[in-house]
Write the structure tokens for this entry.
Amino acid sequence: MSRTTDRAGSVVERAGKGRLKAAWTLVLLAPLCAEAAFTGISLPSIWPAFPLLVPVYGAGVLLIRELACRAGAGWAGLLVLGVAYELAEDGLGLQALTSPHLYTAAQWGRMLGFNITYWESQVGYHLVFSLLIPVALTGLIFKRHARRPYLGTFGLVGTAVVFAAGLALAKVSIAGSQDPGYQTPWPVVAALLAVIVVLGVVALVVFPRLRMPRPAPVARLPRPPVMATVAGIAPIVFLGLLFPLGHNAGRPAVGHGAWVALPMAAALVIAVAVGWRIAQWSASEAFTDRHRVWLIGGAMVGHSLFAVASGVAGGNAVLSPVLGLVVIAVTVLLLGRLDRRLAP
């Protein structure tokens, strides 16, 4: 009996350590995928501030993943929580959603006091590179725990506290230094908080009780390199329609004034169309984890290539290409190892 008990305790202990490793992996992957592989290339001066991003990105994404997993919200609920997360980050933390000065975002496209073009670029970007890709990668690395919570109640509460502290830190250190004196108007803060709560209720209470529609699977899956190519082109086109080429360029890459509505609409159509197509691929019985790795790899390489172009346009003609080459090489190398590990 004693040996049986000891063996069972050892199994539980290893499982607990595995979940903790998965949690820390996600905490690191979120800022690495979203910032190191993008802003770290286009704007290399951000590297000293990288540790400041971990509480917002790492703890925020881990919190979202844990809440969605516990509620059984699925990928749809995860996406809705991702929108709430982006509103908290840019609306409450950085205040870039309403600031007339920060990042020159107001000059991209502004309506009713909101930097709408900037927000569209950020919500689309963060849903994929801060949330979906890090969560999917962590699930592939720790497959045993992919459908389980990584944290207990104490860990969940602690993660929420760290995320809140990260928002405050972003407000003081980033918004406070780059846009000193600006405060989001309190009615906007109240409205943002209300929207965040509503999105949370929809994702965690409503969605788990609904039978969500599943896309019809495609008759035949394309080859993984084709999937990777689609996933790589999509962020280049999406960001190219909205994102300025060059730091503080003062305008989006395409359009000016009221005309930014056209590239905004085009970017939205592309994001929805590509996202739905990927959902159709993943609904196929022939879709495997290796297909998922290729999709992630294509998207990561694509957004890093756009970062290189943005960095060169902003004056980093040497450093951005060098950093981009290193980041892309490391990305391909590590995903290649993961692909071989997942091979049957």
